[in-house]
């Protein structure tokens, strides 16, 4: 084979030789602005992008080639979107993605909002199954321009996935029969006041997973959710919420304030993750305490529970009769008594994970009103008969923490494994103790379970076995997982 033939073979365009449908499928994975540029490759690519069942329109992708985001660049982007929609040849748009974010150099006008609304409405005529909108225009001082989502979105019989991230999108009142095929929704609303969302998910017959992030709502806003097929709900809101979801299995709550959750028919709830990310207050108002207590009572039937929040220690606890796994963030010594109270109320607990918030333990003994850990007079039933695994992370070596370790080993008759995560620098800083002294101290603790294996895992260490002649246990130095 001569050199010219070799070069011809090397430069052969095999992708262009692929069937039409395969090339269209390939283009569906890239933004539309790049898909359009393939028309210059060859005649076989000419207008191929118009058959792609995905329109991915991101102003940022367009701005990379047309300068910074200015009024002029937005106008050019708008013309590009107009052309993409008018030239589209596919009978369906499987996914319609529209991302628009302005900056402080220019503001969108009401005519721009109307134009964007028409884009969404036009796209919905193509039987969209996935709609993703990210729209946060920079608004001038005192401006409150709203973009009302077209009703065509709510009546679309093919829409299965809805993602919205916006500071100005509002929602018209919903009617029975809306979102007939919607199974997944992820709504991020940064509006300071968006009461239009109050009943957005009151009529969702097949919705299975819902995520709502709306922490900037006014306190007088109330949300209502009614979804007979809802399995997973993730919320980060600061307003009251009523939930009617008889098949709800997984509830995740992130909140900077204590939201009032009214759970109806939550008999199928299996997992709950409650994380309060607000600041620490020593004395909460009765109303806030009642809200937090009601939330815990609403998830009392779960099998898996994750609790994190410095204020939750003040709540009255319900009985967790089905609880098998508990993960608890320990905010200082006061949470140890809270832990014991949880153990008392969880008779079937098998797996306990304790994650120590290091910052709250440094000066714990100097906090006014500090009292050392006091073990309960009656050993919780779960410790004696069900608890098999215990994991403690970020342990600082405080006596109170070690007293809990000692207590669980002493009374854990069916305990099979206890894993402790720490590091030498942290131990020395907080308790002036070396790794060797720490591991020897742990090994000397009495164990009720002869089959219990204790592991201490240090950071930045290799795997080393340590045998103590006075003990029956083995501690492993391993890299932290």
Please give a structural write-up.
It is a single chain. With 481 residues, the chain is of the alpha/beta class. Among the domains are: 17-172, no CATH class; 352-364 and 373-481, no CATH class. It is built from 13 helices and 22 strands. The strands form four sheets. The protein has a 15-stranded parallel sheet. Helix 6 links the parallel strand 2 (95-100) and strand 3 (130-135). The radius of gyration is 29 Å and the shape is elongated. 30% of the residues are buried. This is Putative F-box domain, FBD domain, leucine-rich repeat domain, L domain-containing protein. Residues 381-457 form the FBD domain. InterPro entries: F-box-like_dom_sf (IPR036047), F-box_AtFBL13-like (IPR053781), F-box_dom (IPR001810), FBD (IPR006566), FBL13/AtMIF1-like (IPR050232), LRR_dom_sf (IPR032675), LRR_FXL15/At3g58940/PEG3-like (IPR055411).
In a nutshell, what does this entry contain?
With 481 residues, this protein is an alpha/beta fold. It has helices at 3-10, 20-27, 32-37, 59-63, 71-86, 110-124, 151-155, 286-298, 334-344, 381-385, 399-411, 424-431, 435-443, and strands at 54-58, 95-100, 130-135, 147-148, 161-166, 169-170, 184-189, 209-214, 222-226, 232-237, 240-244, 250-255, 261-264, 271-276, 304-308, 325-330, 351-356, 389-393, 417-422, 453-458, 464-467, 474-477.
